[in-house]
Specification:
Elements: H1 2-20, H2 25-46, H3 52-66, H4 68-73, H5 75-78, H6 83-112, H7 118-122, H8 127-138, H9 145-163, H10 176-199, H11 205-227, H12 238-251, H13 253-264, H14 268-274, H15 277-286, H16 301-318
């Protein structure tokens, strides 16, 4: 019975993984980031019924079930990991999988009260700055002058998406908590990118994804007990279960696998800008009928130019990824 399930899984999943090997790394990362934008459509409605940390728990549990054959077939690979590798993996899971996802889920939950879908995802544009800083310190990645110039252009485009040509008046008022939660998620996910890059020098994308899902389950459960977020099982109906399964199959575990396949072939500093596809895709959701908070938000001409500038700069930055070797 077990053998039949493994064969079916292999016949379905591994050809897809092989196909991803033929796609440029930054394209895979941009696709994964776009999936994360769609995640908000599923995750926002879950926050109405399930506390944030329990959403994190259930989505990773679903990811573990999806990747059980990978966990079983990769036992010999895991045995070769050293103590330092396990420590980095554990820290990455705590910081990125649990803390980052929890902070972003809470930001979405709090932002619903003020009807602002865009702000939590727009603040993720700060993530490249944290990744650049950490990758130069810990991964010793060398940044060219061309890369730094394009990075400035990309950030200008990001600014215009959020604020157009207006100056920023730092009056967060009721959005302060949302802003802090979203920035915290950006820091956590930025650190996770750097630690993931190290992990992917030891194991391939599928085992790395499976391990990340597995470790996140007990950690998120422990955090739920620690912060005292109670779960009412009666609040979990068929609609909530379906959303959790959809997250695992698209924007959760599967998106992480696609992201890792891209990250193997991409410098961490370059990948950070490819991930800006996340807020760009989120903008198009925010201005459309898909906006989960009600009426579509408006996009000015300056905002539109910002999207164009950002996308062009991302494509140019991708050409900086000539060396696929992790330093």
């Amino acid at each position: 019975m077990t053998k039949k399930v493994q064969i079916t899984y292999a016949e379905f999943i591994y050809p897809i993984i092989e196909f991803m090997n033929k796609i440029p790394g930054f394209v895979l990362i941009m696709f994964a980031a776009s999936l994360w934008a769609l995640d908000a459509l599923l995750r926002t409605h879950l926050t109405f019924a399930i506390p944030s940390i329990w959403i994190v728990f259930f989505e990773h549990l679903a990811g573990v079930l999806l990747f059980l054959p990978v966990l079983y077939n990769s036992r010999s690979v895991f045995n070769k990991l050293k103590k330092r590798d396990w420590m980095i993996l554990l820290l990455m899971t705590i910081v990125s999988s649990v803390l980052g996802t929890l902070l972003f889920t809470e930001a979405l939950n709090k932002s619903f009260a003020v009807g602002d879908f865009a702000s939590p995802v727009l603040l993720q544009k700060l993530q490249p700055m944290f990744v650049i800083m950490l990758s130069t310190i810990f991964l010793k990645e060398v940044l060219s002058y061309r890369f730094l110039l394009l990075a400035v252009v990309a950030l200008i485009g990001s600014y215009m998406i959020s604020f157009g040509t207006d100056s920023v008046f730092l009056d967060f008022s009721s959005k302060l908590e949302v802003s802090l939660l979203a920035v915290g998620a950006a820091v956590a996910w930025g650190a996770g990118t750097v630690m993931s890059k190290h992990l992917l020098t030891k194991v391939d994308a599928a085992p790395a994804t499976a391990l990340r899902m597995l470790l996140a389950v007990p950690i998120s459960f422990a955090v739920a007990l620690l912060i005292g977020q109670d779960l009412q099982l009666s609040a979990i109906g068929s609609a909530e279960i379906l959303r959790i399964i959809l997250i695992a199959l698209s924007t959760g575990a599967v998106a992480i696998l696609i992201y890792y396949k891209g990250l193997i072939k991409t410098k961490a500093s370059v990948s950070a800008f490819a991930e800006l596809a996340f807020p760009v895709a989120s903008i198009f959701i925010a201005i459309s009928v898909l906006n989960p908070y009600g009426q579509p938000q408006t996009l000015t001409l300056a905002n539109s130019f910002g999207v164009i500038i950002l996308l062009i700069s991302i494509l140019l930055i991708s050409t900086e990824n000539e060396s696929k070797k992790s330093i």
